[in-house]
Amino acid sequence: MFHRERPEKEYTPLYAKYGLGTTAFSALQGGLLTGKYNDGIPDGTRSPPCPCSCGATEGPQGEELLWKVRLLSQIAAGASFLPDLLNSGRNPLALAWVAAHRHTSTVILGVSSVAQLEANLGALEVLPKLDAAVLARIEAVLGNHPQEPETYGRPPLDQGIL
């Protein structure tokens, strides 16, 4: 959700040209999108979220990420099809959002317990229920939809290269 430039922009020409899809890993940003780091690093956590993959949870960038996670949790809590799934403490909305992308072939789930696996599989129930209104609210929170670069009349770089 937070790192979209490559899969949604840079790789787009490859999807159609070669019939490829994306295999998404760390879709929960090392646990950040589950909300477990909203109030600091909990006891018993294997490791804090990786600064290189999802940004530190401290400082201005970290505060912004945690703010977005809280807003996404509010969206999930307000969706009538999610409350039972949220009782597990995990947020299947993020996984369903990644899986809903038209170029996603596979979402790799990283879990350390059966409970986490069961919670993550809840995304399968959420996925068919994501509608345009929920997706638009998520986009508004994320505010990072990749934009096409200006070509100033030149053809796209992928033409004739691959």
Automatic annotation (TrEMBL):
The keyword Flavoprotein does not apply. Residues 4-141 form the NADP-dependent oxidoreductase domain. The keyword Cytoplasm does not apply. InterPro entries: K_chnl_volt-dep_bsu_KCNAB-rel, NAD(P)_OxRdtase_dom_sf, NADP_OxRdtase_dom. GO terms for molecular function: oxidoreductase activity. This is Aldo-ket-red domain-containing protein. Belongs to the shaker potassium channel beta subunit family. Keywords: NADP, Oxidoreductase. Pfam families: Aldo_ket_red. It comes from Mycena indigotica.
